[in-house]
Structure formats: C-alpha cells, structure tokens
Amino acid sequence: MAAGAHETGTAVTALQVMRDAPVIPVIVLQEVAQAVPLARALVAGGIRMLEVTMRTSVALACIEAIAREVPEAVPGAGTVRSAADARAASRAGARFAVSPGYTSSVGHACRDLGLPLLPGVATGSEIMAAAEDGHTELKFFPALQAGGVAMLKAWGGPFPELRFCPTGGVSPANAAEFLALPNVVCVGGSWLTPADAVSTGDWARITQLAREATQLQRR
Ligand code: 3PG
To answer: What is the 3-state secondary structure (H, E, C) of 34-75?
Structure first.
C-alpha cells in the first residue's frame, strides 16, 4: 500500500483498502479478547485491512480494541446494513465500511462520516444505484452464488470504469481466477480466519494463511 496510508488515524480511500493486499479478510469474532491477537496475527502475515463483521454483539468492541491497540492494522466494519450501523462503526474507530447490499441512506451516511464504503452489489441495477452515488469500488456479493467470474466479465462491458472485490464463496482454490480479471482489485473471504483457529487461538496458523494470501498474484 502507499507509504503511510495505514498509519494510525490516517484516512484511507476505498481504492487503498482494495489495493493493500490481494485479500480482505472477512472476520467474525465471538469474544473481544480475540480481536487484538487476531489482528496482530494478520498484520504479521502482511494483511492490514481487516473487515470485522457487525454480526456479533462484540463486533464494535473488537473494532475499538484493534483501533486502540494495533496501530499497524486498519480496522473496518463489515455487514453495515444501515446508517445507524455506519455511525456506530465510525464511532468505534472503523476506518472503512463494507455492506452486503446498497442503499442510498447507507451511502450518504458513510459519505457524511468520511467513511469509505465498499457497497455490496449483485445486479446491474444495484451497480447503477451505487455508481450514481459516486461509488466506483464495489463489493460483488455473494460472488460465487451470483455468477462468479462470468458475471464480472459481463459487467466489464457496460461498467468498464468500476472495480470489484468479489466476496462470498471465494477460496484459495478459485481466488486466482478472480484476481486475474481486469475489473478485480482484490477478493474478500473468511478463509484467513477459520472459526476453529480463532476459538483456539491458533494465531500462527492465521499468520500463515495471511502470508499465503499476500502471495496471490494480481493482474
Ligand atoms: C460473508 O459475508 O460471510 C463473506 O462473504 C464471506 O464469505 P465466505 O465465507 O464464503 O468467504
């Protein structure tokens, strides 16, 4: 990533979030105590952009802990479904947001908060709605289920200037195929943080998975 862009408190853009590494980890945390060692393990493997999903009651506290204690990481909030979610994520210290779909109210809230957003899209109409609100970096979700590589190739025709982070069903087995596409900057996935490794505190395994993810070739 660009020098300095991940320093504590420095604003990042959606494009920087996508360019930093080939994979954005989608993280589900059940305990606050897991947040800091997990973030450190990912950073040790070269992954700094961390999407902590707002799917558990401790998600905001986890984002707060990472923001406070792991300055090399850039915590973001995933599963942002409303303007209220965006505000709560920003207050907790999230420096970017990822949403499973797109509404203008989420887009406007993020814009007002200065929170870069990767809006989730799965159809041409959703892409047009997000692009109308100024979003040129988009999450394709759920990527595999909604058409995968073939869908991204098709979108390259009418939407040549838009860039995607396919997420959902992406794994080490198919990531390279996505990353080879001209309109894909990175992929997202939960495989860097397997639930059993997180619950048992197998941080070395997570660092290794992160390291392998950074070796994936991008176009
Ligand atoms: C999600 O929101 O759960 C992500 O899309 C992760 O999907 P994956 O588990 O298929 O990587």
So the answer is: HHHHHHHHHHHCCCCEEEEECCCCCHHHHHHHHHHHCCCCEE
